[in-house]
Design goal:
With 290 residues, the protein is α+β, with helices and mostly antiparallel strands. It has two domains: 116 residues, no CATH class; 93 residues, no CATH class. A five-stranded antiparallel sheet has the order 4-3-2-1-10. The protein has a five-stranded antiparallel sheet with strand order 5-6-7-8-9. β2 and β3 form a beta hairpin. It starts with a helix and ends with a helix.
Length: 290
């Protein structure tokens, strides 16, 4: 009986050990999840790369378009800036005509000063001309139908509101040069300059749109002073080249002709005189400005 019990127990034990356990599905599910994750990651990476490339392309295209628009804007602004002086010059024609009409009919200048009138008004002359090279025309008036004291030379321009202003007010002995310089001879040569006529040199100042004085120039003529009996006043020591002239540039110190020539060349050397298109001062010619 005891042996039988032992045998049955052994059989039961063998039967339990031989029973197969069901295979776990966890590893398969995990592998599936991981595979899906990898596929999703790869897809996401590809989408991100594609999106980045697309964004980069769009950014580049936008930048190119903005650059194009910027250039077009710059061209438009440049064109407007270039056209502005012409528009202003055209509007100034009415201002200039008013100045000339008022002088002809009322005998006054823009600042209200009465003109000294002697002889015929048609003896005077005017010009509408870009004398200073700023891109718009100025009004030049050479007024000489007057006594010596009343003779005058004007250059006018006008602001954006149509108000005239003077660029130059001088004696009418003006010579213009194409480097922005001009000379104005004195009205009376009352010193010892003799054959030399004293003058003032002016230079165009673009910042202020006016002509500014650079220096007044005078001289002493030895022969003329000898004729006057004042040769002892001639500074022989300054005339080192024995030219018979000494010069004064903006001060009372005499210099030799070689020094004067060097200064003159530094100011006007190589410059050419400008020819002014003068017109007779008459109402018929005022209208021609329109």
């Amino acid at each position: 009986m005891k042996k039988m019990t032992i045998v049955l127990a052994a059989l039961l034990l063998l039967t339990g050990c031989g029973k197969a356990e069901p295979a776990s599905t966890v590893p398969e599910e995990t592998a599936s999840t991981e595979a899906a994750s990898e596929t999703s990651t790869e897809s996401s990476t590809e989408e991100t790369t594609t999106t980045a490339a697309s964004t980069s392309a769009e950014t580049t295209a936008t930048a190119a378009e903005e650059t194009k628009e910027t250039k077009e804007t710059a061209k438009t602004e440049a064109a407007a800036t270039t056209a502005a002086p012409e528009d202003k010059a055209q509007s100034n024609a009415d201002v200039y005509m008013q100045i000339l009409d008022t002088l002809w009919n009322e005998g006054t200048f823009p600042d209200g000063t009465e003109a000294d009138i002697m002889g015929e008004m048609t003896d005077n002359q005017f010009a509408v001309f870009d004398i200073d090279g700023d891109g718009r025309d100025e009004l030049l008036l050479d007024y000489e139908s007057a006594s010596m004291a009343g003779m005058v030379f004007f250059i006018w321009d006008a602001d954006s509101n149509g108000n005239p202003y003077e660029e130059l007010h001088a004696f009418p002995a003006v010579t213009f040069y194409d480097n922005g310089m001009l000379t104005v001879g004195v009205s009376h040569n009352q010193g010892f300059a003799g054959e030399f006529w004293p003058y003032t040199l002016f230079e165009y100042d673009a910042a202020n749109d006016t002509y500014q004085s650079v220096a007044s120039v005078d001289a002493m003529d030895r022969s003329y002073m000898e004729e006057l009996g004042v040769l002892d006043e001639y500074p022989e020591e300054a005339d080192t080249s024995a030219s018979g002239f000494v010069y004064y540039i903006g001060n009372d110190t005499p210099i030799d002709k070689t020094e004067y020539d060097a200064w003159y060349d530094s100011m006007l050397g190589g410059a050419s005189e400008v020819t002014i298109p003068w017109q007779e001062f008459s109402p018929e010619n005022f209208v021609s400005m329109r």
